[in-house]
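<goal> How does this chain fold?
<body> The protein record starts here
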Amino acid sequence: MVRISVELPEDQAARLQHLAAFRFTTAEALLSEVAQGLVADGLALEAWIAQGEAEAAAGETVPFEEVMAELDAIIARAPQG
């Protein structure tokens, strides 16, 4: 494990402590959980982008005009009001 320090404004630190207590945990554990989720989301986003780039490089794309025509059709079918 690596320890990383974070400086927060006092009001945010107080809210973090309150939220941690509400969840029956510590502020440190809560921040660790959030950081792990952020990293996982970032890695998933990078993989999604790489997949899209590979698909585009392989020519697996849909022309812009076709996408817009389909969206226009969906909008036209949507209930008005």
